[in-house]
Design brief:
Elements lengths: L20 E3 L3 E2 L3 E6 L5 H14 L15 E5 L4 H14 L9 E3 L10 H14 L3 E5 L12 H18 L2 E7 L17 H5 L2 E8 L2 E8 L8 E8 L2 E6 L15 H11 L6 H8 L3 H13 L3 E4 L2 E4 L1 H6 L1
Parallel strand pairs: 3-7, 3-8, 4-5, 4-6, 6-7
Antiparallel strand pairs: 1-2, 8-9, 9-10, 10-11, 12-13
Helix pairs in contact: 1-2
Length: 320
């Protein structure tokens, strides 16, 4: 039996700085990851902005550089093709580009399912033929019929995308929904199994805080840029996201979400009392930590223990 290949650590290749980023600061070279957020948080607009930037070499959000542009392959499962074209054309116009000159390839199949071998093979062949620098799949929920809450069902689909990324040297961007409520850390708010959060090399999370749209950046192997405030604005007939630069100094970062905020948010979003186990799963907290914070909330009168679980005290509900 032969042993596995091994090298000393100092003999491993060091990627040159020019190959560390697909989009400077936002997306690592050949990274897999997620653009996540609650409904109506402009996830698709951000994914399309990245697509235009990679295809053209123009800065993403008119700010973040692309050193090595190339083809993009896009599948937008929820939007009509004319809507996809209109959005791409608008983003291109804002960036002073001609959509007709951009190598953005759009999959027009009515459905693509990652849990069907025939579709996986077809997607692999398409990527192998077009050789995109970036593959955008929007959204994950339309790409399967599995139970997103079961790690055993989610993991094989993510493993397929990881294999595709490694074998064909393409970045993979998966648009995915977050649970409503916004009272948990960005990655922990993603709907379904925690496998999704753990899978990403580069993850971008969008959420609304009153009238502001916040973008949080997370990388597996690089420092993250500070949180950004974005706005979706019209430029004539074109619509695109842009970075808001006129925020007061006190609003440069989104407010910190504490464990107590997460519990209160989960209870506020639930139509009925939550059991301790349901609350632990919703907040993705360890049982010991949950118990400690719950005890403080009960003592402060913010949470009430019910025979069917826990619920917010009336005063806590009114304050929201």
């Amino acid at each position: 039996m032969s042993m596995l290949p091994v090298r000393l650590a100092h003999q491993l290749e060091d990627a040159p700085a020019s190959r560390r980023w697909l989009v400077e600061g936002l997306w690592a070279e050949a990274a897999v990851g997620i653009v996540g957020g609650e409904p109506k948080c402009c996830k698709s607009f951000l994914a399309l902005d990245l697509a235009v930037a990679v295809a053209s070499g123009a800065p993403c959000l008119r700010r973040y550089a692309v050193a090595r542009p190339g083809p993009v392959l896009l599948y937008a499962a929820e939007d009509a093709l004319h809507v996809v074209r209109e959005r791409l054309a608008g983003i291109a116009e804002v960036s002073r580009l001609d959509l007709q000159r951009l190598p953005i390839h759009v999959i027009t199949a009515p459905s693509v399912r990652l849990d069907v071998e025939r579709d996986r093979n077809a997607l692999y062949e398409t990527v192998a033929t077009i050789k995109p620098r970036l593959l955008v799949l929007d959204p994950f929920v339309r790409l399967h019929r599995i139970d997103e809450n079961l790690a055993g069902e989610v993991a094989p689909l993510l493993a397929y995308l990881r294999e595709l990324q490694r074998q064909l040297d393409t970045a993979v961007l998966l648009v995915h929904h977050a649970r409503k409520g916004g009272h948990v850390r960005a990655g922990q708010a993603l709907r379904g199994s925690s496998e999704l959060h753990a899978w990403g090399d580069s993850n971008l999370y969008l959420r609304r805080d009153r009238d502001k749209l916040w973008l949080t950046v997370e990388h597996r192997a690089a420092p993250s840029v500070p949180a950004l405030a974005l706005a979706l604005a019209a430029h004539g007939t074109a619509v695109a996201l842009h970075v808001v630069d006129t925020l007061p100094a006190t609003a440069t970062d989104p407010p910190e979400v504490t464990p107590a905020d997460r519990i209160v948010g989960a209870l506020a979003a639930a139509p009925t009392p939550l059991s301790r186990r349901a609350l632990r799963d919703a907040c993705r907290m360890r049982n010991t930590a949950l118990g400690s914070v719950l005890a403080d909330l009960l003592a402060a009168g913010r949470v009430i223990e019910h025979d069917r679980g826990y619920l917010l005290a009336p005063a806590a509900t009114d304050s929201r």
